[in-house]
Amino acid sequence: MKFLAEYLPRIRTVVITIESPKEVHVKGLEPESVELANDQGARYVIELPHRVVIDSSQNSFQSYKDYKTLRLRAVEDKGDRDLYKNRSLNFMMQVVPQRWMKRDLLGEEFQLRCKDCESCVLAKKDCVQINEMPSEFWAELMDYWHCHKPASSDGMRVDRYAKLSPLPGELLVGNSFFLISSSWPGNQLSFEGDNTACSKCSSVLGCLSTDNLYKINKWNLGLVRNGRKEVYPPEHFVISALLDLLNADGARKIKLKCQDSSQHLLLWIFAVGLQVTLPLGNRVSNCMKVYYKEEKVDESAINASKVQNIEELAVPAIAFSSFIEKLKTAHQQLPAVVKKMDNWSLGFVEYS
Fold first, then answer.
1. All residues at 6 or more sequence positions from 209 whose CB lies less than 8 Å from its CB, including other chains
2. Do 113 and 220 belong together in one domain?
3. Among 231, 253, 284, residue at a domain's last position
4. What is the torsional sign of CA 57, 59, 64, 68?
5. Strand 311-315 with 24-30, pairing
6. Count of CB atoms within 10 A of residue 268's CB?
7. Are residues 329 and 248 in the same domain?
8. Number of independent structural domains in the chain
9. Of the residues 176, 210, 231, which one is the last residue of a structural domain?
10. Backbone angles phi, psi at 123, to 5 degrees
11. Coiled coil: which residue ranges (predicted)?
């Protein structure tokens, strides 16, 4: 059985769409789950993406030719009401995926280990300071600022903000990377030319940035704290970059390109911060709803993009492939009625 359970906060409704070769009906309803049964007595429990009001009048499906839908009234949380109705809040900025940020690294001892050999390459004891980057697109922001900066005769005062200059032992933290200088203490990292690598196994962990700092991608590392190892999903880099474009330019249609090949994908960011449940996993509390196209973008589409404000975003190969894999995995689980909209395919990507 294929299904999609989606929480729609603005209308306080949980909608369940089901595609099943057998007749199904509601056997039981709980605040956080619904139990279905078919005519042969087989049962299936769907975890709901949000708590619902128990109401016996809502316990029946609306049947269509190839699918059924069930609409349940959701319990309204005060936090949801404030978030979705308060126009002074920037909802997009509150849903940007953030892992291994300053607040996560200050509280306790940690080690950042090479993903290949698991040797420690960075530890809290090595850090004199830990500070956060203002944006994944720092270089672009600085270029824009220099084009529009006020006139000043004090070149020293202006140029001090032209590039990042961390102190020795200062770790700068971005959404998907760390920045350090080549004078980083210790010998766990090697700095050769445009790359930085693990000193033990020589795996490349990052590269030289435009500020002559070394950018270490989080997905090349494992974080160990409290005896537990965490990994950074590469698709989070794409999600962070997409949300940055959405926040900065209002761009919802984006041509996503792989930096290392001719592969690309046309994306339509339909919604963010959603709560859904899919068949192969439990409920997802924070995800992006994306429609996508894989066909070749021809000249007419390129010309149309100038009118439709389609941005372009190039990402590393590992992040590109991971993002596509997540989209397609979710797409395959969906009922046929919601899989496509015209020639767009639907997928979901989690970033909770």
1. 139, 179, 215
2. yes
3. 231
4. positive
5. unpaired
6. 16
7. yes
8. 3
9. 231
10. -140, 160
11. none
Q: Considering the entire predicted model, what is its pTM? A: 0.82
CA dihedral (185, 188, 193, 195) in degrees, to 10, reads -120
Of the candidates 199, 224, 225, which has an alpha carbon nearest to the alpha carbon of residue 117? 199
How is residue 116 written in tokens?
């290949």
pLDDT tens for the chain, residues 1 to 352? 899 999 998 899 999 999 988 889 999 999 999 999 988 889 999 999 999 999 766 778 888 888 999 999 999 876 555 555 555 444 555 466 688 999 999 988 999 999 999 999 999 999 999 999 865 554 555 554 445 555 544 443 334 445 677 888 999 998 899 999 999 988 999 998 899 999 999 999 999 988 889 999 999 999 999 889 999 999 999 998 898 888 777 778 999 999 989 899 999 999 988 999 999 877 888 899 999 998 665 445 555 545 467 889 999 999 999 999 999 999 999 999 999 999 999 999 998 6
Nearest-angstrom CA–CA distance, 302 and 16: 37
Axis crossing angle, helix 317-333 with helix 235-249, rounded to the nearest 10? 90
**CATH number of residue 108's parent domain:** 2.170.150
Q: Identify which of 26, 3, 55 has the alpha carbon closest to the alpha carbon of residue 35.
A: 26
